[in-house]
Specification:
The complex is a heterodimer of chains A (549) and B (346). In chain A, helix 7 runs antiparallel to helix 8. In chain A, 34% of the residues are buried. Chain A is built from 19 helices and 13 strands. Chain A has three domains: 151 residues, MutS, DNA mismatch repair protein, Chain A, domain 3 (Orthogonal Bundle), CATH 1.10.1420; 82 residues, no CATH class; 218 residues, P-loop containing nucleotide triphosphate hydrolases (Rossmann fold). By secondary structure, chain A is α/β, with parallel strands linked by helices. The mean pLDDT of chain A is 87. Chain B is an alpha/beta fold. Chain B folds into two domains: 229 residues, P-loop containing nucleotide triphosphate hydrolases (Rossmann fold, 3-Layer(aba) Sandwich), CATH 3.40.50; 104 residues. Chain B is 32% helix and 27% strand. Chain B is built from eleven helices and 18 strands. Chain B has a nine-stranded mixed β-sheet, with helices on both faces. Chain B has a five-stranded mixed β-sheet with strand order 11-10-12-14-16, covered by helices on one side. A two-stranded antiparallel ribbon of chain B has the order 3-7. In chain B, helix 8 crosses helix 9. Chain B starts with a helix and ends in a 10-residue tail after the last strand. The C terminus of chain B is likely disordered. Classes of the chains: A alpha/beta (549), B alpha/beta (346). At the A-B interface, helix 7 of A face helix 4, strand 5 and strand 6 of B.
């Protein structure tokens, strides 16, 4: 990504925000989202396939409302299994909680697989999941289809036998102890507690004496209130307890063996599981892209071979979102750019910067395989996108606007890369107008020779006359009547008014020799600036123009 | 006997202790045994502690409990892997602890297991809900030592308080402290429904608020009441009727508050519930004498108090005397966990 567009540019043009908006539900989807990359010229077929498949899937999704809900439901059940899978690959033995998680997850995978099969309109080759039925059977040996897990008796005869034996022994101990308790009760007329203790109140001395003499119980301890006697276990009970302890150990050993076998079973299916995980991530991302596209009313761009960008009614979604929050409308822009240099001129606040960002955004989104916010768009992949903002002070380097601009231009020309999309905002603004003009002239002449698309916005007169350079102009206030503008300005009072309400942000072809519009004079006059100042200003402009001519 | 107080009336019940060795685990085990005999299916969990350090320190303090077949437990993964009881794993929750995620299990075969539940109120409540969905009749929450928050009505419907000789060498002191705790838990509920709604709203917003006679309220821009007594005191007006504290109320706040204005006498203080008040018995008496009034949004239902006349420091109270005095002082059931009375000759 960094080679395609710098981190700073990603943020400035709004692509970072768009990617941030792209919704994914699972950890796998998050991974796929992070691995998204802009497709280059050589990957153009892949990019076309992404759009083709996304289109098919999108139509499938739209065919029934419940499909999306169901898919989102499945996705919400997926947890990241990769930690446990790594342990499997590292030849470690999974514990019961991990086996439970794997059982759970592969059961959801199987359900998702069956769901996808039921809808032929969703059946893309790349979403063909692998069935894990044999592994499910291994983890659900009793076929109960419930998602819980423990080491079932049916895993091995030995386990079953060990547990049976243990159960019998426990039962036998219980039986003997019940008999003993009954005997004690008969002899002492005191009912022993569940834990085989007999409590005798200290004041009952004769009872204490009887207990002392009774061979069935022995003195254990004394509390503040009573003597505690305990039933003497018979030799059989002692033996059985030892046996039970031994069985418990053997049971644990057997359980370990079974976990080892089950882990091996999981390992047998590791490729299938990993493939499914990959598909889930891809599915999640695809759904996210479709939802994002719907959200910003995006369209599938046509992908052409050579660097090219064209769109009708393009909208910068991030700016549009902000405007909507303020209750305002975004005015879409049409643009067509071909090889070579295009100069954009127009009024202050005429949206030139946003248009440059929009160009970068649509190119970037198209190369990432996202739906783009326009009515129609065609994009040919660029090898990189560079955007220089006119007021960009380079904080890291501590350079001024001018210095920063030169620094970036130097890097750009040093690299001599071709097939880039180079967007230069307010070229030459950081220095005095005449030198700015000179440098801009040089830059434009240079980029004319470089393969790729360059767009320059400027306030400076004369640049539009350079041969072989296209000129686009923001419509701005040109079609507005002075009275209209005056009304808006008067309403606002302080002149900061809502001129933007009158502004026409669209671009139209400019004549090569057309001057940069002088709307500042008009607005100053409408706002009632002293006429003497304006007269002088107009005179000065005229003189300067004659000098230049 | 204890289970009779719970079954059919409350679904989530906590057992909290006044101090370590107050006999909390004995009460818990007794409840488990009773439930087993009466075929009541239990859900068991405990309130853990936030923060790794404390968890490590208190690791050995988590109760090791003999669980019966059919019981559902919610405890951290590591305790399950080391359990002696055989457990069927039902669900691995998203709630994390230093001992791994909280896992819900059904006991397949009786045995011992250490219970280390989630670390915060909200998670405990969610886990309790889940256990009820799995079909248990009653959920018991073991409140960690010195963590009475498990008693909060935000988590449990009712609570059993364990106290004992361990609290103090002086029997009177133990009686006082226990009665104080029971009083705090049972503080009167805000009676005016309009004020109650307003208090809930302020608590949700986590702001300290003053409610005035005409129904209007002033919100104070303080994050907590800690060291804020003076500012709150200064904000009290003639017309102020209630002050709502969304978090804890500590002695210092109240002290500072009453030092700056006499108007506090006309005011009722509102906290969410008794677990949010951190004021010792003698300070509490002092405040009451000075005319401090306190109400809660949700009173805590104290079902019973268990007493343990033994102290591990090596002294003990005369059990009958201790039990009787406690019973006379509190108007709720008092049970001596060591006094085997109940099933002596059953």
């Amino acid at each position: 990504m960094n080679e395609y567009m710098s981190r700073k540019n990603l943020r400035e043009v709004g692509l970072e925000q768009i990617i941030d908006w792209l919704p994914v539900q699972t950890d796998y989807g998050k991974d796929h989202k992070e691995r998204m990359f802009p497709h280059s010229h050589s990957q153009i077929e892949d990019l076309r396939r992404i759009y083709r498949e996304m289109g098919i899937f999108r139509r499938g999704l739209k065919s029934s409302q419940s499909i999306l809900w169901n898919l989102k439901g499945f996705l919400s059940e997926f947890k990241d299994l990769r930690g446990s899978l790594k342990r499997v690959m590292d030849q470690e033995i999974l514990n019961e909680v991990e086996l439970f998680e794997i059982k759970n997850q592969i059961m959801v995978m199987e359900e998702l697989l069956e769901f996808l099969r039921r809808y032929p309109q969703l059946s893309l080759e790349k979403f063909q999941m692998e069935s894990l039925a044999p592994l499910i059977k291994a983890l659900d040996p009793e076929g109960s289809r419930v998602r819980t897990f423990y080491i079932y008796d049916s895993y091995s005869n030995r386990l079953y036998e060990l547990r049976e034996k243990k159960r019998k022994i426990t039962g036998r101990i219980q039986e003997i102890q019940n008999q003993l308790r009954q005997k004690v009760f008969e002899e002492l007329e005191i009912k022993p507690k569940m834990n085989n203790e007999v409590l005798i109140p200290k004041e009952d001395r004769s009872m204490a004496k009887r207990a002392e003499e009774c061979s069935l119980v022995y003195f254990l301890s004394e509390t503040y209130r009573s003597y505690v006697f305990k039933i003497v276990p018979t030799d059989e009970v002692i033996l059985l307890r030892e046996e039970s302890q031994k069985l418990k150990m053997e049971e644990e050993e057997e359980e370990f063996e079974i976990r080892k076998i089950l882990t091996q079973r999981v390992r047998d299916f590791i490729d299938e599981i990993n493939k499914n995980i990959h598909i889930i991530g891809e599915l999640d991302l695809t759904i996210g892209k479709i939802l994002l596209g719907d959200d910003m009313r995006g369209v599938e761009p046509r992908i052409v071979d050579d660097p090219y960008i064209h769109f009708l009614k393009g909208r910068h979604s991030v700016v549009e979102h902000r405007l909507h929050q303020e209750g305002k409308e975004y005015m879409p822009v049409d643009i067509s750019l071909e090889e070579g240099v295009t100069i954009v001129t127009g009024a202050n606040m005429g949206g030139k910067t946003i248009t440059l960002k929009l160009i970068a955004l649509i190119a970037g989104m198209a190369q990432l395989g996202l739906y783009v916010p326009a009515q129609e768009a065609t994009v040919g992949p660029f090898s990189f996108v560079y955007f220089s903002s006119g007021d960009g002070q380079s904080e890291e380097q501590g350079l001024s606007t001018f210095g920063s601009e030169i620094y970036h231009l130097k890097n750009l020309t040093d690299d001599q890369q071709s097939n880039g999309l180079i967007l230069l905002d307010e070229l030459g603004r950081g220095t005095n107008p005449s030198e700015g003009y000179g440098i801009s002239y040089g830059v434009i002449e240079y980029f004319k020779q470089v393969i790729g698309i360059t767009v320059v916005t400027t306030h400076l007169d004369g640049l539009t006359q350079i041969k072989g350079v296209k000129h686009l102009q923001v419509v701005g206030l040109r079609n507005r009547k002075p009275e209209e503008i005056k009304e808006v300005l008067d309403k606002a009072g302080d002149g900061k008014g809502r001129l933007e309400d009158l502004m026409d942000y669209r671009l139209e072809h400019g004549e090569a020799d057309r001057e940069v519009p002088k709307e500042a004079m008009m607005i100053a006059r409408l706002m009632g600036l002293n006429e003497k100042i304006l007269e002088k200003a107009e005179k000065a402009l005229k003189t300067k123009k004659q000098e230049m001519d | 006997m204890l289970m009779k107080l719970i079954y059919g009336k409350y679904r989530v019940v906590s057992v909290v202790g006044m101090a370590k060795n107050a006999g909390k685990t004995v009460v818990l085990n007794k409840l488990i045994e009773e439930a087993y005999k009466k075929y009541i299916t239990l859900g068991l969990t405990s309130i853990g502690r936030d923060g790794e350090r404390e968890d490590l320190v208190t690791k050995t303090e988590k109760p090791v409990i003999h669980v019966m077949e059919g019981t559902i437990i919610a405890t951290a993964q590591d305790t399950i892997l080391n359990a002696d009881a055989r457990l069927e794993i039902l669900e691995v929750t998203e709630y994390r602890t230093t001992l791994g995620p909280i896992v819900l299990c059904r006991v397949k075969e009786n045995g011992l297991v250490e219970i280390a539940g989630p670390g915060n109120n909200w998670e405990i409540r969610e886990v309790a809900k889940k256990m009820l969905l799995y079909g248990v009749d009653v959920v018991l929450v073991d409140g960690a030592i010195n963590r009475k928050t498990a008693a909060s009505p935000e988590i449990t419907d009712a609570t059993i308080l364990s106290t004992g000789a361990v609290v103090s060498r002086s029997i009177d002191r133990v009686l006082e402290e226990t009665a104080h705790q029971v009083e705090l838990f049972g503080l009167e509920k805000v009676s005016n429904p309009i004020i109650l709604e307003e208090a809930k709203k302020l608590m949700e917003k986590s702001v300290i608020g003053l409610v005035h006679k005409n129904g209007s309220s002033t919100e104070l821009n303080l994050k907590t009441a800690l060291n804020a007594g003076r500012i709150i005191g200064g904000a009290i007006e003639e017309s102020t009727e209630y002050i709502v504290f969304p978090g804890s109320l500590v002695r210092k706040t109240l002290e500072d508050l009453i030092a700056v204005t006499p108007l506090y006498k006309k005011v009722t203080f509102i906290v969410h519930d008794g677990t949010k008040i951190f004021i010792a018995y003698h300070d509490w008496l002092k405040f009451k004498r000075r005319g401090v009034r306190m109400q809660v949004v949700e009173p805590i239902q104290v079902l019973a108090v268990s007493v343990n006349p033994y102290a591990p420091q090596g002294y003990e109270f005369q059990p009958e005397e201790f039990h009787k005095k406690m019973k006379d002082l509190l108007r709720i059931p008092v049970i001596d966990v060591m006094l085997e009375g109940d099933d002596f000759y059953e």
